[in-house]
Amino acid sequence: MKDYFSVQEVAKLLNVSRSGVLYHIKTGKLKATKVGKIYIISQENFGDFLKHHKEEKKKKSKRSSQTKLKFD
Question: What's the pTM?
Answer without folding.
Answer: 0.75
